Amino acid sequence: MKSVLNILTLVGASLLMTSCFDKSAPNYQFFPNMYEPVSYETYGESNVFNSPTGEKGKVSQIPPAGTIKQGFVPYEIPNTPEGYAASKANVSPLAADQIDAERGKELFTIYCAICHGEGGDGKGNLVKREKFLGVPSYKDREITTGSVFHVATYGLNSMGSHANQLSKEERWQVADYVMKLKSELK
C-alpha cells in the first residue's frame, strides 16, 4: 500500500510539472523589460529624441550658444600671442591674506615639478630622462604672475592646459609660487 502511494505521488508530481510547460506559449513575465532590456548601441542613432533640424534619431550634443557649465568662471583673455602679451599686465586677484605659499608649493609639486623641476630650473624628472626637451628655467624667462596664469590656463608649446585639473584660484596660487621661485633663482 505504501509503495502504491509513493508511485501515485511521483506520477502526480510529474504530471503537475510537465502540464505547465508549453514551448509554443511560455509563461507570462511580469515587467518583461527587467528581464529582457532594450539594448542601445553606444553613440548609435536613436529615435527617442528629435534633433533641432527635425530629423528623427539624430541628436545634437552641442550645448546651446552662450551657456557655460555650472561653476565655470570664464577667462576673458584669448589664447593668442596677443592675449599672452596682454596677460603679462594682469595681477593676481587674490588678496595678500588669500595667497597660501604652502598650497602653491604643493600644487606646483604635483602638476609642474615633474617637468620644471622642484626649484623651477627646468630640470624635472621628465627632462632628466629626456622625455621632454627644452623646458626653460624660470630665471631665463620674462614672466609675470598674469602670464604664468595664462599659460596654466591655455598651455603653451608642448605644455598642455591645466584648467581642468586646477581651479582658477589654484592656478593663481601656482602662479604666485612660480614668481617666488623665479626670485630665488637669480
From TrEMBL:
Keyword terms: Heme, Iron, Metal-binding, Signal
Name this protein carries in UniProt: Quinol:cytochrome c oxidoreductase monoheme cytochrome subunit
Domain of life: Bacteria
Classification via PROSITE patterns: CYTC (PS51007), PROKAR_LIPOPROTEIN (PS51257)
The keyword Cell inner membrane appears for this protein: no
Species of the source: Flavobacterium terrigena
Domain Cytochrome c: 99-182
Xref: Pfam families: Cytochrome_CBB3 (PF13442)
Database matches in InterPro entries: Cyt_c-like_dom, Cyt_c-like_dom_sf
Position of the signal peptide: 1-24
One of the record's GO molecular function terms: metal ion binding
